[in-house]
Write a structure and sequence with these properties.
The protein is built from ten helices and twelve strands. With about 280 residues, the protein is of the alpha/beta class. The protein has two domains: about 120 residues, Quinolinate phosphoribosyl transferase, N-terminal domain (Aldehyde Oxidoreductase, domain 3); about 150 residues, Aldolase class I (TIM Barrel), CATH 3.20.20.70. The strands form three sheets. A six-stranded parallel beta sheet has the order 6-11-10-9-8-7. The protein has a four-stranded antiparallel beta sheet with strand order 3-5-1-12, covered by helices on one side.
Length: about 280
């Protein structure tokens, strides 16, 4: 993650939560009161948020000392400490919620991704994310997917062309859409086309798309489409694939499976911060 973007985002998160000041902490404790706290896991899963924890506490108070005990992508067990924070009590308590919110969401995504990768259990097909992320949190969500063993799809509308059903409908055809997009973006940007049937697949191949996505197709259909698709074209399956049926796509030969539920249906991994 870009550290400048991380700090800028977290700064806004802290401003949202703090407002003018933390009425609870500042009303009870003196500015010079110091303490130590431990962040520990209440569930087992995959840790994600190493740099985020450091940024949250140091942005609010540069004198706060934060020792992160886990690395991104490492397993964490119930009751295991993930970080130790030392500094002004007011600073620790004021940063607590933002730190835990991000840590819990990111670790939840990393854990869910790890489960998907394990469930698929493929030496060829890779799990990747989508743009179905919470606004303002995409950078953190996608980092968490990578911590869980997944790969990143495009980061936004700006770093790859993805021609979907509505683009095709408005443009008139896949060929027309690909030709116009290629002229507009140049040769360094990949072009992906979403298809739903064999006719569209053949048109996308003829248009020499860089990536072809098989949208809402069964494992049997994906396998058939793979046999038709030339090796130089990257293939992807998406839509209707979940934790329950993911394993059925293991032997289809598809290069990537993109899963929206990794980020749009997050179950946070529970952590707590307790003062010593």
């Amino acid at each position: 993650m870009n550290p400048l973007k991380v700090k800028e985002s977290i700064k806004q998160f802290l401003i949202e939560d703090l407002g003018d000041r933390d009425l609870s902490a500042s009303g009870i404790f003196r500015e010079e009161d110091r303490g130590e706290a431990v962040i520990y896991a209440k569930e087992k899963g995959i840790f994600s948020g190493e740099s985020v924890l450091r940024a949250v506490f140091s942005l609010l108070d540069r004198e706060t000392e934060i020792e992160v005990l886990k690395k991104d992508g490492e397993a964490v067990q119930i009751g295991e400490p993930a970080a130790v924070v030392k500094g002004k009590i007011i600073s620790i308590l004021s940063a607590e919620r933002v730190a835990l919110n991000l840590l819990q969401r990111m670790s939840g995504i990393a854990t869910m991704t790890h489960h998907a990768v394990t469930r698929l259990d493929s030496g060829h097909t890779r799990i990747c994310d989508t743009r179905k992320t919470a606004p303002g949190l995409r950078m953190f969500d996608k980092h968490a997917v990578r911590c869980g063993g997944g790969r990143s799809h495009r980061s936004g509308l700006y770093d790859a062309v993805m021609i979907k059903d509505n683009h095709i409908s408005f443009a008139g055809s896949i060929s027309e859409a690909v030709e116009k997009a290629r002229k507009a973006v140049g040769h360094t940007v990949k072009i992906e086309v979403e298809i739903e049937d064999e006719k569209q697949l053949l048109e996308a191949i003829e248009a020499r798309a860089d990536i072809i996505m098989f949208d809402n197709r069964t494992p049997e259909e994906v396998k058939t489409f793979i046999e038709i698709t030339p090796d130089f074209i990257i293939t992807e399956a998406s839509g209707g694939i979940n934790a329950g049926n993911l394993h059925l796509y293991r032997d289809t030969g598809v290069d990537y499976i993109s899963l929206g539920y990794l980020t749009h249906s997050v179950k946070a991994l529970d952590y707590s911060l307790l003062m010593k």
